[in-house]
Amino acid sequence: MARTALVTGGTRGIGKAICLALKRAGHRVAANYAGNDEAAKAFREETGIPVFKWSVADYEACRDGIARVEAELGPVEILINNAGITRDVPFHKMTPDQWREVIDTNLSGVFNMTHPVWNGMRDRGFGRIVTISSINGQKGQFGQVNYSAAKAGDLGFTKALAQEGAKKGITVNAICPGYIATDMVMAVPAEVRQKIVEQIPVGRLGEAEEVARAVLFLVSDEAGFVTGSTLTVNGGQYLV
Ligand code: NDP
Predict the structure, then answer these.
(1) Is there a domain that residue 240 lies in?
(2) Phi, psi at 154, each rounded to 5°
(3) How far apart are CA 163 and CA 187, in angstroms?
(4) DSSP-assigned beta bridge partners for residue 52
(5) For position 240, what pLDDT does the model report?
(6) Where are the beta strands (DSSP E) in the chain?
(7) In this structure, what CATH number is given to the domain that contains residue 202?
(8) Do the domain assignments include residue 148?
(9) Catalytic residue annotation
(10) What is the interface pTM, i.e. ipTM, of the complex?
């Protein structure tokens, strides 16, 4: 069944692959982004998917942005919390701003986006929420105390909210990708990337489309019994 889907950080990387997969599956898709207008324009022209600019770190902006999306495409039935940033630095050098920026976007952003769509989903008796967490939220990562804390928080958020949505037809799930070949990972120095690949049993970085396929499964009408789960997509790098 065709649904209305909103993907945060949908104009690049994993979010872009998710938007394309949802569109191919017949859904009405909207892509949010934060500041890279050039990438958003190119995405819009390439895919025909409408783009909406606001920061997920800002609750009021999320409420207003979601209202704009709903006016154009109808009530949001599928929400993909994908927007995320890194501010990597060892803890002894981490500034309060580097902590806050990552928590505000990667953890509070999930609250800011989910809260305004929640009551509508409850009223309609259907909803699909998928949050893109990370392998580093599961295992922790040197230089990513802020990021690992936020992504682990996303998993707690998912498990708690899943219990609240269950009787209302709303599933809430998380995906923990391993290392995926996007701008975020390609920004890591090549020699560090090589060391990362050596730790992945499958022997390569993942593709954004491989995460998108996992999203498609979780948002399908047929996946109504799958809720509160963490789906690992990491080439066997970390097994829980
Ligand atoms: P990219 O850096 O390639 O893209 C990030 C996207 O998020 C962009 O569209 C960006 O918008 C958007 N974004 C960033 N901050 C905000 C904000 N405050 N409000 C709205 N949108 C925002 O990231 P990836 O595709 O690599 O990552 C996507 C998600 O997957 C993230 O949550 C990341 O933590 C997670 N992840 C990624 C992994 C990887 O290996 N790549 C591994 C595990 C998890 P703009 O273009 O305007 O900057």
Answers:
(1) no
(2) -60, -35
(3) 37
(4) 32
(5) 87
(6) 4-7, 28-33, 51-53, 78-81, 127-132, 170-177, 230-233
(7) 3.40.50.720
(8) yes
(9) 147
(10) 0.99
Q: How many residues are given for the chain?
A: 240
Number of structural domains (the chain) is 1
Q: Ligand 1 test: best mutation among 12, 81, 188, most atoms within 8 Å of CB?
A: 12
Ligand 1 test: best mutation among 59, 63, 82, 237, most atoms within 8 Å of CB? 82
Whole-prediction pTM value? 0.98
Range of the domain at 22: 4-233
Minimal-distance CA residue to ligand 1 atom 46 = 36
φ and ψ of 83, to 5 deg: -55, 135
CB of residue 55 inside a 6 A radius of ligand 1: yes
Cα torsion 64, 8, 33, 139: sign: positive
Q: Report whether residue 132 contacts ligand 1, using a CB cutoff of 6 Å.
A: yes
Q: Whose CA is nearest to atom 8 of ligand 1?
A: 9
| Residue 1, token pair as written in the block | 């069944």
Crossing angle (nearest 10°) for helices 145-165 and 109-124: 10
Examine residue 95 and state whether it is found in any structural domain, yes or no: yes
What are the tens digits of pLDDT across the range 188-228?
899 999 999 999 999 999 999 999 999 999 999 999 999 99
